[in-house]
Amino acid sequence: MGIVVQKYGGSSLSDADAIKRVARRIVDAKKAGNDVVVAVSAMGDSTDELLDLAAQVSPLPPARELDMLLTAGERISMALVAMAISDLGFTAQSFTGSQAGVITDDVHGKAKILDVTPGRIRSAIDEGHIVIVAGFQGVSQQTKEITTLGRGGTDTTAVALAAALDADVCEIYTDVDGVFTADPRIVPAARKLATVTYEEMLELAASGAKVLHLRSVEYARRHNIPIHVRSSFSTLEGTIVTGSINDPAPEGSMEAPIIAGVAHDRSEAKITVVGVPDKVGEAAAIFNALAEAQINIDMIVQNVSAAATNLTDISFTLPTSDGQTAMTTLDELKARVGFESLLYDESIGKISLIGAGMRSHPGISAKFFTALAEAGVNIGMISTSEIRISVIVDQDDVDRAVQACHTAFDLDADEVEAVVYGGSGR
């Protein structure tokens, strides 16, 4: 008997009928002879509703209390799912993140999982129960306080549980039928991918594809846990995330596609530090301060130093949610570093072309930039990795850019394959 870990997002648990439908799918997995462990998100938009409520009560709620509030959403879901399973004649036990042994660091709001000690889960499995775990949360190893993992944290909870339990597979149930070559809301002709490598999925997730959370893919790659992305609203096969771009192709298989997909992200902002003295250590001082503030930086561009002034500009992108913290942090650094000013821009979007095949196919960059130019899209910043090219464009140009690039690389399907059953894509 194998262990299957499943994850259900908020759109899959939006109301009582949805919860009953999910319970039936969980029971089907149990009837098939599997031990089943399920990680659940909060119902529908309840996390956003709790955040709105907190904002009405306090403009700056303490991080500890905000985590205590937000974890309530997943606890409601886990209990309701367990009740629905019980009504189907099977026993289920629900556990909070801390009860399930999800151990984290002590950073409220975006804690990282350090370890999973699933003793209580194993005991419940041995007793024949289906196990339901509240996602998105854990307990700090040091302070013993309740923590949350940040947006998309239930994906990471599910993969971490799968690794700790040595599960056969981690099934991520969402409101689309798998991983597509682009967001079906923007490109209705997007194709569903049957398989995608960990590296390609990491780049897609980091570039804005919302079907899987970045940290969950990192965790799965590290522990070699296959992820099966499926819709909770259909019985289609979905997409398997597994393997590496460096693995040899299976014997007799066709060469892998050059491009896996086109991703976009509207949740980033750009900060430009103007007039930075071109001296050793100044960039280090800037980015060390941002790191200490727990701010993740994405793209970075430094201009050539002006000969007359010996000053340079440094631009970088970061999550919009961290924008105010970053500006405050840098403003406090101004006197020490001696830069002239700060510029902040939220009206940007990131477009990324991802595919393992671009490592061995010349002309990909030229084709990408030509497609953007022909669509009338101006490029603000460029960043590349071995299997990704990303550009920053005006936010109003995002849809047009995604559509143009998707068509340019022959990714459009002949028939519409994508159905968005819910509303969030998560």
From TrEMBL:
One GO-annotated biological process of the protein: diaminopimelate biosynthetic process
GO molecular function, one term: aspartate kinase activity
Top-level taxon: Bacteria
UniProt pathway: Amino-acid biosynthesis; L-methionine biosynthesis via de novo pathway; L-homoserine from L-aspartate: step 1/3; Amino-acid biosynthesis; L-threonine biosynthesis; L-threonine from L-aspartate: step 1/5; Amino-acid biosynthesis; L-lysine biosynthesis via DAP pathway; (S)-tetrahydrodipicolinate from L-aspartate: step 1/4
Binding-site residues for ATP, renumbered to this chain: 7-10, 174-175, 185, 210-211
Catalysed reactions listed for this entry: L-aspartate + ATP = 4-phospho-L-aspartate + ADP
A Pfam family of this chain: ACT_9
Domain ACT, chain residue ranges per copy: 271-356
Keywords: Amino-acid biosynthesis, ATP-binding, Diaminopimelate biosynthesis, Kinase, Lysine biosynthesis, Nucleotide-binding, Transferase
Keyword Isomerase among record annotations: no
Cellular-component GO terms for this entry: cytosol
Residues holding substrate: 47, 74
Record-listed E.C. numbers: 2.7.2.4
Protein family (similarity comment): Belongs to the aspartokinase family.
Function: Catalyzes the phosphorylation of the beta-carboxyl group of aspartic acid with ATP to yield 4-phospho-L-aspartate, which is involved in the branched biosynthetic pathway leading to the biosynthesis of amino acids lysine, threonine, isoleucine and methionine.
Listed name of the protein: Aspartokinase
Organism: Nocardioides humilatus
